[in-house]
């Protein structure tokens, strides 16, 4: 239902501050497919371009961004559709749950009115029918119906995140994009919200694109995982399988797997920092940090190579 073809996002910087102009290539040639009802996880360190991908999907990027490639949602290109069509697609075909719900809710409006807003704007319900739908949505996300009259400050962080999920579900979209939906929450609440997301997408047959730096969170919810590094996809494969790219392996080793006695944390984590997008190293962008890099990695720009149900961009994979 969703297909990204050679997607690129480049930010222009310096224009606002009057400083020197520059370009940040945040996303570089990302191609991905998401089937109806499928849950795909997008992982990577901070700055790898995950949020830029998420924001591009509904054209929410700032004006300083230039986007290339195609984003086909049910066969229609989001990047070229007119504003009227885009407004119709937002919320009703696809909606986004952002990280840090407390910043997403209006502090001076009641929860119920905020959940009802997309229903009213999209003329899906009004008056008593909208009130009934709001109560139904609150119950679906595990909150009592009377919470409709609460203000955001009267809710905990976990409850506010549930409200954001209720808003995202309001117009019954076929796709939900969840950008770090549990990052701001403590571990117990994070587990509850993840269980809720898993259950809702299964019950309603919704496709999910979930973004996180934490691979173990994604593996818990998603059918497939995609890993980004310096704006590129380095690996895509089934959530249950073993990673082949050295970067995905290092990222996976950075998080403990609760309940798996065989899992060991990487003793020193991954050395070094991700590259500055304005000064990307030649060849494979990961080679300066790669523990198994060869001489050729400094000059060979590897593309994703598909083998069975997995694709990885590394000269060592498939050897
Ligand atoms: N509005 C912007 N203007 C200029 N550069 C930007 C802008 N937004 C993001 N970037 C740059 O684009 C790159 C990718 O950022 P992005 O937020 O997409 O990464 P991310 O993987 O989602 O990181 P995080 O997990 O920290 O949110 C980074 O180098 C970032 O500094």
Structural notes for this entry:
With 319 residues, the protein is α/β, with parallel strands linked by helices. It has a single domain, classed as Rossmann fold. 28% of the residues lie in helices and 24% in strands. It contains eight helices and twelve strands. The protein has an eight-stranded mixed beta sheet with strand order 6-7-8-3-9-10-12-11, sandwiched between helices. Strand 9 and strand 10 form a beta hairpin. The protein is globular and about 70 Å long. The relative contact order is 0.14. Bound molecules: adenosine-5'-triphosphate. The site of adenosine-5'-triphosphate has 16 residues, from strand 1, strand 2 and helix 1. It is found in: Cell membrane. This is Peptide/nickel transport system ATP-binding protein. One of its GO terms (cellular component) is plasma membrane. It is a peripheral membrane protein. InterPro entries: AAA+_ATPase, ABC_Ni/Peptide_Import, ABC_transporter-like_ATP-bd, ABC_transporter-like_CS, Oligopep_ABC_C, P-loop_NTPase.
The CATH class turns out to be Alpha Beta
The name of the CATH topology is: Rossmann fold
Tertiary shape? globular
CATH arch. level architecture:
3-Layer(aba) Sandwich
Order of helices and strands: EEEHEEHEHHHEHEHEEHEE
Protein name: Peptide/nickel transport system ATP-binding protein
Keywords: ATP-binding, Cell membrane, Membrane, Nucleotide-binding, Transport
GO cellular component, one term: plasma membrane
Domain ABC transporter: 2-255
